[in-house]
C-alpha cells in the first residue's frame, strides 16, 4: 500500500474539559518538515514577472468577441502584451492617487481585464478585492465600505448595479474603470457622484502619459482580501498574503513533479468559475506560473459547450453542483477531448477553502485508492482532527475521526476587521474548519464523512446532521433538491420536515401516469403528490438504513430551485438556512400544526 501522508506528532487526550486532538499529519513530501520554498518565488508578482521573462511570446489570455450576431474564434494576448498592459494600468492607478496598501475592487465576470487589473495591483503593492454580487443583496455595497475601496474596475453590464442608489457607498470611490467602455448615461451618473469615470482605453492612455516603475510587495504584505459568503450574516474578508499565494504555487510545483504526465506551456484552461472565488483564482495563478494559456468563457454558462469546442482546453475545473447545472452538451464536449491530457478537477479531487489559499488537501489523479477522498494534506499544510463528542467522533479512535483543523504556510492571516471571528477560527495556531468531519484512512488520505455545521438537536435529545441527510434524500428520483429546515432557529421539534424541490421530468411523468394536468406549481398543491413524495423519501431512508428520527415526516413542495436571486443559496450553491427558514416559515408552521393535530 502506498502511504501518502504520515503522522509527525502524537495526539493527546483532552485536558481540563478540552476536546482531545489527534496526531499532526503531513504530506509524505513534508515528513521531515516543509520543503524549502523557491527563493525566486516569494510574491504573486514574482510568479508573473518571471513567466513573462521565460515565455514572452506564449499565449496567455484568450477571449471571444461578439460579431455579426455570434461569438468568433478565440483571440489572444501574449505574456509580453499582457505585461505591457499591466504596467500601463499600474501607472494609471498610481497617477490617480493609489498608494501601497490601497484597496482596489474588481467587479465582473472572468475576462482578460480582470487579470490585468489584478496583476497591476501585484505590481504596486495594492490590495486586490474581488467584488461579488452573488454573495447576497447589498454585498457589493458592504464590501466597498468594509474594505475601504477607493478604485474599482467594473464590467460594462455591472456599472448600473454599482451606481444603483442602494449601493450607497459607491460615492466613496475615487474612480471607476470600465472593462471596455462606459455608456453616456453611466458616465454622467458617475460624474454626479463626484467619481471619475474611465473607459479601459482612456485609463491605458493615462498610464502612457504618467509612467511609474513597479513597487512590488514583500511576502508578508496583504495580496488580496477575498470575501466569502458563509451561510448567514455579512461576508467575511479573508486576508491572504503574498507568501500564502506564492506558497500555494510552490507546493503545486512540488506535487506535480511526481506525475509522469507533466503540465506544459501547451496546456489550455477554460475559465468559467468565478475569479472572485479562490478555486479558480488559484488555478489561474498556477497556469501563469507555468507559462500556459487561459481562455475565458463568453459569459453564458448555457453556451459553455460552444466555448469548449472552440477552445479545446486540456484542463477543466468545476464542482459537482456546478456540473449538474451545465447542459449535457458540455459533458459530451468533455468526453471528446484528448483523454490523456484531459483532467477534470472535482471536489473529491481537491478540498479547497479560501482560508487555506485554495488548497488544504490534494488528491492524486490516477490513484484509485484515493477514490472518494480529498487526498493527503497539501505539501505546505499540516492537518489534525479534533474530537466531536456529541457526534461520537474520536481522533484517537480506529479509524481516527473528527473535525478537520489546518495550519501551515498557506493558511490565511485572519478575517479583515474581524478579530473576534479570527480568534474563533484560528485557535491554538490551528484553523478550525468549523464543520468538515474527516477520517484518516490507512494510506494517509483524508475522507470527508460528515459536517459538524448545521447539526440540530431534536426535542427528544437526538442530534441530526442536516447536510448528510439532504445528501441521502437528494438521490430520490422525484427530488431535484431538498432542504431540511425543521428545528433550525425555531423552537425544538420532535420530527423533521423539509422543503422539496421537485424533479420536473419525473414529476411530469408521475402526473401523466396518475391523470393529473396543470403547471408544476399547480401539481405541488396536490395531496396525492405530497403523499407520493413522502413515500419515496421513506423508501430512500429505508434503503440507506436511516434511524427513525431521521425520517422526513412532512414536506412542502416547491416547483422552483433554490436560487441566488432569492438569496437562498451562496455563490457555491450552499444553502443559506436562515434565509430558507424565513422564506418558508409560514408554511413550516402550518405543516407542524397539521402533523401535531393542531398542537404546537
Set out the fold topology:
Layout: E1 5-9, E2 24-27, H1 44-54, E3 59-67, E4 70-78, H2 79-95, E5 103-107, H3 112-123, E6 127-131, H4 139-146, E7 149-154, H5 159-162, E8 175-178, H6 184-192, E9 196-198, H7 200-209, E10 222-228, E11 236-241, H8 242-256, E12 268-271, H9 278-289, E13 293-296, H10 304-311, E14 315-317, H11 320-323, H12 328-335, E15 343-345, E16 350-351, E17 361-362, E18 381-386, E19 401-408, E20 414-415, H13 419-425, E21 426-427, E22 430-440, E23 446-451, E24 455-457, E25 463-465, H14 466-473, E26 479-484, E27 496-502, H15 504-513, H16 520-524, H17 527-543, E28 552-558, H18 577-595
Parallel strand pairs: 3-13, 5-6, 5-7, 7-8, 8-9, 12-13, 12-14, 14-15, 27-28
Antiparallel strand pairs: 1-2, 2-18, 3-4, 10-11, 11-20, 16-17, 18-19, 19-22, 21-22, 22-23, 24-25, 26-27
Overview of this structure, please?
There is one protein chain. It is built from 18 helices and 28 strands. Helix 2 (79-95) packs across helix 3 (112-123) and helix 2 packs across helix 7 (200-209). The chain has 3 domains: 19-35 and 364-451, Luciferase, Domain 3 (Luciferase, domain 3); 44-345, ANL, N-terminal domain (Rossmann fold, 3-Layer(aba) Sandwich); 455-595, GMP Synthetase, Chain A, domain 3, CATH 3.30.300. The chain has 600 residues and is of the alpha/beta class. The longest helix has 19 residues, at 577-595. The N and C termini lie far apart (56 Å). Strands 1, 2, 18, 19, 21, 22 and 23 form a 7-stranded antiparallel β-sheet that branches. Strands 4-3-13-12-14-15 form a 6-stranded mixed β-sheet, with helices on both faces. It is globular and about 75 Å long. The chain is 31% helix and 24% strand.
Amino acid at each position: 500500500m502506498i502511504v501518502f501522508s504520515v503522522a509527525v506528532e502524537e495526539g493527546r487526550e483532552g485536558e481540563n474539559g478540552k476536546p482531545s486532538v489527534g496526531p499532526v499529519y503531513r504530506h509524505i513530501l513534508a515528513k521531515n518538515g516543509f520543503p524549502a520554498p523557491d527563493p525566486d518565488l516569494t510574491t504573486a508578482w514574482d510568479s508573473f514577472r518571471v513567466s513573462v521573462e521565460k515565455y514572452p511570446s506564449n499565449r496567455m489570455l484568450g477571449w471571444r468577441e461578439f460579431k455579426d450576431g455570434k461569438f468568433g474564434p478565440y483571440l489572444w494576448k501574449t505574456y509580453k502584451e499582457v505585461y505591457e498592459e499591466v504596467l500601463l494600468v499600474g501607472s494609471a492607478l498610481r497617477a490617480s492617487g493609489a498608494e501601497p496598501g490601497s484597496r482596489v475592487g474588481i467587479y465582473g465576470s472572468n475576462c482578460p481585464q480582470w487579470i490585468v487589473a489584478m496583476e497591476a495591483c501585484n505590481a504596486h503593492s495594492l490590495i486586490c478585492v474581488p467584488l461579488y454580487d452573488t454573495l447576497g443583496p447589498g454585498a457589493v455595497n458592504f464590501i466597498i465600505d468594509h474594505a475601504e475601496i477607493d478604485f474599482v474596475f467594473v464590467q460594462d453590464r455591472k456599472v448600473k448595479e454599482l451606481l444603483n442608489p442602494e449601493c450607497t457607498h459607491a460615492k466613496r470611490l475615487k474612480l471607476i474603470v470600465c472593462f471596455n467602455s462606459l455608456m453616456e448615461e453611466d458616465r454622467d451618473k458617475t460624474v454626479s457622484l463626484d467619481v471619475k469615470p474611465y473607459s479601459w482605453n482612456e485609463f491605458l492612455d493615462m498610464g502612457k502619459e504618467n509612467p511609474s516603475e513597479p513597487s512590488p510587495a514583500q511576502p508578508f504584505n496583504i495580496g488580496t482580501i477575498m470575501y466569502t459568503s458563509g451561510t448567514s450574516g455579512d461576508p467575511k474578508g479573508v486576508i491572504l498574503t503574498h507568501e500564502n499565494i506564492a506558497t500555494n504555487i510552490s507546493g503545486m510545483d512540488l506535487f506535480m513533479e511526481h506525475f509522469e504526465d507533466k503540465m506544459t506551456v501547451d496546456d489550455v484552461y477554460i475559465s468559467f468559475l468565478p475569479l472572485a472565488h479562490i478555486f479558480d483564482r488559484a488555478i489561474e495563478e498556477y497556469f501563469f506560473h507555468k507559462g500556459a494559456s487561459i481562455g475565458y468563457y463568453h459569459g453564458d454558462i448555457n453556451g459553455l459547450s460552444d466555448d469548449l469546442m472552440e477552445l479545446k482546453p486540456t484542463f477543466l475545473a468545476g464542482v459537482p453542483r456546478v456540473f449538474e447545472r451545465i447542459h449535457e452538451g458540455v459533458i459530451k464536449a468533455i468526453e471528446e477531448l484528448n483523454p490523456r491530457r484531459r483532467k477534470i478537477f472535482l471536489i473529491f479531487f481537491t478540498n479547497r477553502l479560501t482560508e487555506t489559499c485554495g488548497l488544504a488537501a490534494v488528491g492524486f489523479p490516477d490513484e484509485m485508492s484515493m477514490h472518494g477522498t480529498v487526498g493527503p494534506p497539501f505539501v505546505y499544510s499540516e492537518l489534525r482532527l479534533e474530537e466531536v463528542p456529541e457526534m461520537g467522533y474520536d481522533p484517537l479512535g480506529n479509524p481516527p475521526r473528527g473535525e478537520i483543523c489546518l495550519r501551515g504556510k498557506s493558511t490565511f492571516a485572519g478575517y479583515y476587521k474581524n478579530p473576534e471571528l479570527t480568534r474563533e477560527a484560528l485557535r491554538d495556531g490551528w484553523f478550525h474548519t468549523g464543520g468538515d468531519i474527516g477520517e484518516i484512512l490507512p494510506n494517509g488520505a483524508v475522507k470527508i464523512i460528515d459536517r459538524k455545521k448545521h447539526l440540530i438537536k431534536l426535542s427528544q435529545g437526538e442530534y441530526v446532521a442536516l447536510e448528510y441527510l439532504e445528501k441521502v434524500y437528494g438521490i430520490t428520483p422525484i427530488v431535484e433538491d431538498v432542504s431540511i429546515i425543521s428545528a433550525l432557529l425555531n423552537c425544538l421539534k420532535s420530527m423533521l420536515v423539509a422543503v422539496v424541490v421537485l424533479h420536473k421530468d419525473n414529476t411530469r411523468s408521475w402526473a401523466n401516469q396518475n391523470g393529473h394536468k396543470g403547471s408544476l406549481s399547480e401539481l405541488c398543491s396536490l395531496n396525492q403528490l405530497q403523499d407520493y413524495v413522502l413515500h419515496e423519501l421513506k423508501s430512500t431512508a429505508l434503503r440507506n438504513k436511516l434511524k427513525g428520527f431521521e425520517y422526513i415526516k412532512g414536506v412542502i413542495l416547491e416547483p422552483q430551485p433554490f436560487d441566488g436571486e432569492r438569496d437562498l443559496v451562496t455563490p457555491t450553491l450552499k444553502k443559506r438556512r436562515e434565509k430558507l427558514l424565513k422564506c418558508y416559515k409560514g408554511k413550516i408552521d402550518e405543516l407542524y400544526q397539521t402533523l401535531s393535530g393542531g398542537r404546537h
